[in-house]
Amino acid sequence: MHHSSRWIPAAAPMVICLSVISANAQPVGTSGTADPPPLLREDAGSVSSRDLFWGVGTAERAPQGPFKFIEEKTNGTQPKIVVSDSSGVTWDVKFGSEAHAEIAASRLMHAVGYYTEELYFVPSGRVDGVPTLRRAGEHLDAAGAFSNGRFSRRDPNVTVAKKEEWSFRENPFLGQKELSGLVIMMTMLNNWDIRGPSNNAVVHAKTPAGLQERRYLVSDLGATFGRMGGRLSNHSKWKLEDYRAEGFIEKVESGMVHLDYDGIDSGMDRVPLEHARWFATIVSQLTSEQVRRAFDAAGAAPEEADGFTKRFMEKIAELQAAVR
Predict the structure, then answer these.
(1) Which of 13, 24, 117, 248 has the least C-beta neighbours within 10 A?
(2) β partners of residue 73
(3) Interatomic CA distance for residues 118 and 47, integer angstroms
(4) For the whole model, what pTM was predicted?
């Protein structure tokens, strides 16, 4: 595999981790001009006990139909609309090939402590009051019925910081193990589209304890579970045979783990061995039953859920073997 450039997340000196969640958060409305510190992940605690069907959400917070049309969104590559549900909650709804992939990827990211949006997969439903649509029309019939929707909850306690942008090459976490872990996760998910800042976000979140947090997250996980393909090759999403065929770890050499990352940002292919060893202790706590729940939550067919789970667990084993 040829790479025109290489990016090593250990380029900056190692510093004390900034990614410990609420201990560094600031109370909302307190005096002082300092922003809350940047957070890339939270302490995942007992990874093996996390419920990957609901992720950061719950059954009680899931979207409840019927739904009422608000507007169509025309940004991005996938068709989207905005709706309200029977409880008055507003949702961004995405259709198309990314709906399954984004749900499963968000659950696995949550499992190892990285921040995600609150997403739900809705296999079918109805939207009332739908006008003639530009792009999303092919996903709703004349009565507003749809299938396979990815619902993202608009939470008034979470706001996107419009003026804050970040990429994998420019962010406050360069040189930290948490960023290396995120790079490994992108390769495990086959996320070939990690271009920043358009696919990443900084959100300001108010916690139940009244603290303000500034969270850095990968906000578009739809280009996953398929073929990475390199900069000029064909990519795919949510395609089991392509996901199975992609490699993961190329070699370990000179204290670096070389990843078989071949997405759009082809420089993201090496992480320090010690960082990879740290991340392996976290992701290896996942069980195949948990991982399978993530794909069930995404509406995967049984054979898809089995196949994706098997390959993801194989990647965990490959990582463990590489860092021994």
Answers:
(1) 13
(2) 80
(3) 18
(4) 0.87
